[in-house]
Amino acid sequence: MSVEVEWRDYDVVVVGSGGAGSIAARAAAEDGASVLVVSKDPIACSDTKISEGIATVRESGSGDDSEETLSENLRIAGGDLPAQEVTDAFASDSKTAYDTVRQYGLRPEIDADRQGPQSLPLPLGGHTRRRSVGHINSGIAFGHANWQAVVGEARIDYLEDAWFLDLAETNGVVSGGLIYDAARGVLVAVRAPSVVIAAGGLSTLFFPKTDTMRGNTGDSYAIAARAGADLVDMEQIQFLPFCLASPPSYEGLLCGEPVMASFLGVLRDNNGKVILDGVYLRTRAECSSAIMRAVEDGRGSPNGGAFLDMTANKTPPKSGPYFMKFVETVLPSAFRNARQALGKEAATCEIPWEVRPAAHYHMGGIRTDEHCASIGGNDGATMEGVTGLFAAGQAMGGVFGANRLGSTSLTEGAVFGIRSGQAAARHARSKSVADDEVLNGLIERTQARFGQKGDRSATQIKMELQKACWDLIGPVRTAERLDEIDSKLDGWAEELDRVVIPTYGTWNQAFLEYEELRNMLDTARAVAAAARERDGSLGGHVRLDKSEISAFSWPYSTMVRRGDNGQMTARRIERPRTPLRQLISYKLKEAWRKAQVKMLHLMPAEMQDRKLEARYKAIMGAGDKAPEVYPGSPDAAIADGKQA
Amino acid sequence: MKVEIVLTRDGDQQVVSYDYQRREPKERPMVLDVLLQAQATTIPDLAFRYGCRARNCGVCTIDINGKPRIACRARAREGDRLEPVSTLPVLGDLVVRRDGVARQLRGRLPVAAQGNDLNVEAPQAYHELTACIECYACLTGCPMHARNGENADPGAGYEFGNPFSLLKLQRARLDPLGSSQSREQALKSAVELGLSSCVDCPGCKCGVGIDLKNLVVSELLTAAGDRLPEPSDLSEETA
Fold it and tell me: Can you tell me whether residue A117 is helix, strand or coil?
């Protein structure tokens, strides 16, 4: 007997219930739309919930902040890849969107003078103003607010343990989609004129070399691409360089950032040779690529990384004790991971730490306008994309380009959650006719998968794929590797029909694995296509066989679209460049910082020690505590503030 | 290292043994590592939940030797018995259906009053309750949750509450942006969900160490006072 089908009608379907999806659903419901939330994980159990919980709130820290400044900060950090309409929208709504999350129970500390949320004492790197707000309980506080946005609103229907499989789309128009509700063991066919995709990122392509939620199987991008949507900047994946490589239970979790290495920290290969000095001033990409180049060369550490050696910071009699306080307080949660995983000797910096990069965030995604609606088109002429398709959060591209400013992703979820929910509700009012024929086709194909015979397990293909993604489209890439991943992806795509899937409906794990694998394959293909089109290193994309793309060249974004044959084709869209004067000033600042490191190293030991003591005192102030740095922020790697 | 895993597929239950192969000589794996390796080798479609691997997301709770534990941060030991939590219906292998818990709070959670000044700080206790990661370990041993019986329909939301739902209601009462009306509504909901079960209960156990008894249950019991049904009414109700 085949899995049963239930039919439903809604104005808006929201896929995902994290920082973007929950807010989108609530916004659409408040606009009067009937809403269904589809979430494969329990409501609000997302990357937002496990994040550091720091959000960008315009004007929270200084009176001279403005929409223009914030929008420009985003574009410069992103290597001019972000679309200005989109960064303007982020800047314009960042305050009101944050207040919306507060309506659902997020309670920050209050700055009595400014009568607003208390911002962190320093601007996070890349931000030119103080505007990052931290929260007690980190991301969990946002998790509660997101949960409240969905569960607390009786007008929203929701399904958890439910996988949104595919959009129903005819001639570029969405008419709903098909859902597998694993808890009840039924397929749910939904007729809906608007679908918001907010199903997170793709870091699980690199599992276990990631610090994010398991569910990031690229669902957002694959579902949109299969319906014919444009994906933008898909090569831009943010890897954090200093994550744990062992013990296995801690693999992938964050243990440090370049800034933590402090003045004398270096990276060493397996032979003890220095492969990168001045680590604290390096970008994350520079650190990752130094580590991965050593690994390539057969000089990697036992678990495929390198050694972060901070011992030299500790030895000097005067500055050493200050360094220890600095390292313990600058990134408390990362330091805790290191202490638990690597032991006491490592925590006291008596031995080097084994580190390896891990995937953290995807900057690219579904190409949309500032109202989160899918768009297409080429240079100078954007066109409507897939009508009725909207995206928000990590699913959406075009906000951050080649690099993401610290503390922006939680705000991104709220800003574009609200915008997508409202736009989806608005679109639903101009209802189009449902196309049951397309849905019936999807149902038939899906039902046929239950009971599929074969000799392959999707879990096992997934693991092969994850290993290949790390090696071939991970923190370092070459043209040859991109060819290799394509041919492997072709092979696995053929094997999809040989995956064994039992017939039963309730929580059919083999079917779930099959569906997630299908999404991972399409997403990996899109990343590979964009990575080939971007033929030089830029931001989160490092090509071993090509040079760095100069900040002075004309910026472009990569666009990827899926053809009927399942292959992805890439093209370029030109972006406007930041004025030359600003670029030159960035370059000069960078050169000056590097010169300072050189001078420090040339000093006699005693003088160096005194000099460092003074600098630690200046950083930590009277409290003997370093100002906390947000993991992944350009402040964590100071040099990331530069133009890419 | 050998462990036992209780599997449920399509309603049929069986207990299988799995021999964990240490990846490093001195490895002390977490239970989640054991499950991942079993899935990667001899039990390909082993069903279990996990998310962040760092005790933040709250979804990987299972029973280890009969007690609820967060699998990503529970060390595995020789002979461990791994099974789904006993307090919720099993969907497949170690996966239970969770949504009946949150659904019981639909329409019961007050909304922050519109137009309030948002710039008011919450009391310390509000933040202490916000530390809840929703792991549902607290359902184990809860007499109120037990009143739902085994055949309750999660899709409709459970009739009787549990420490988690009480935590959410007490948190709403502590919210400085709430109104006296919303606080009253939260208290009324706690009583309706069966707060009277807490009267003679020695207390509940939180998976992440929140003092549920003092911060949640005692506060609600005190506030409810004589609104709780008499013990005699209660026995009639459950009879």
Answer: strand
The per-residue pLDDT for A635 is 62
Size of interface A-B (CB pairs under 8 A): 156
Side by side, which strands form the sheet with A156-160?
A156-160, A35-39, A12-15, A194-197, A389-391
Token pair belonging to A518: 């299908």
Question: Can you read off the two tokens belonging to residue A549?
Answer: 């793309």
Identify whether the C-beta of residue B160 lies closer than 8 Å to the C-beta of residue B194. yes
Q: Are strands A116-117 and B95-96 parallel, antiparallel or unpaired?
A: unpaired
Report how far residue A38's alpha carbon sits from residue A157's, in angstroms, rounded to the nearest whole number: 9
For range B115-143, the mean pLDDT: 94
**How are beta strands A237-244 and A353-362 bridged, if at all?**
antiparallel
Distance from CA of B193 to the nearest CA of A (A): 17
Q: So where are chain B's domains?
A: 2-96, 99-238
Q: Does A160 touch chain B (CB under 8 A)?
A: yes
The CA distance from A269 to A83, in Å, is: 40
| Residue in A346, A349, A308 with CA at minimum distance from that of residue A326 | A349
Q: Is the pLDDT of residue B33 over 90?
A: yes
Which residues between 90 and 109 in chain B have a beta carbon less than 8 angstroms from any beta carbon of chain A? 91-93, 95, 97-99, 102-103, 105-107, 109
What are the two backbone dihedrals, phi and then psi, of residue B191, each rounded to the nearest 5 degrees? -65, -45
Is there a cis peptide before residue B25, judged by omega within 30 degrees of 0?
no
All domains of chain A in start order, with CATH: 241-357+586-641 (no CATH), 449-574 (1.20.58.100)
Instruction: Say if residues A183 and A507 touch (Cβ distance below 8 Å).
Output: yes
Compute the average pLDDT of residues A80-101: 96
B147: Cα within 13 Å, side-chain hemisphere: 20
Q: Up-side HSE of residue A145: CA atoms within 13 Å toward CB?
A: 32
Nearest residue, CB atoms, B127 vs list A136, A212, A508: A136
**Which residue, among B48, B123, B32, has the nearest Cα to B90 in the 3D structure?**
B48
CATH 1.10.1060.10 is held by the domain B99-238: yes
Instruction: Provide the residue type at B213 as one letter.
Output: K
Q: What is the mean pLDDT of residues B85-89?
A: 97
3-state secondary structure A369-384: CCCCEEEEEECCEEEE
Q: Are A501 and A510 in contact (CB under 8 A)?
A: yes
Q: Does B156 touch chain A (CB under 8 A)?
A: no
Please report, for residues A204, A218, A483, A484, A528, the alpha-carbon distance to residue A487 in angstroms, rounded to integers and kept in the order given: 20, 19, 6, 5, 11
Please report where in the chains the tokens 């223009």 appear, as a residue.
A68
DSSP category for residue B171: H
The model's confidence at residue A643, banded by pLDDT at 50, 70 and 90, is very low
Residue A64 CA to residue B118 CA, distance in Å, equals 22
Q: What is the ipTM of this complex?
A: 0.96
Two structure tokens written together for B209? 């160490």
φ, ψ for residue B218 (rounded to 5)? -60, -40
Instruction: Give the class (CATH, top level) of B2-96.
Output: alpha beta
CB contact under 8 A, B52 and A213: yes
Neighbours of A270 (CB within 10 A): 17
Burial of A451 (0-12, 13-18, 19+ CB in 10 A): middle
Instruction: Please give the full DSSP string across A235-247, using - where no structure is assigned.
Output: T-EEEEEEEE--S
Contact (CB, 8 A) for A158 and A39: yes
Phi, psi angles (nearest 5°) of residue A295: -60, -45
**A324 within 8 A of A286, measured Cβ to Cβ:** no
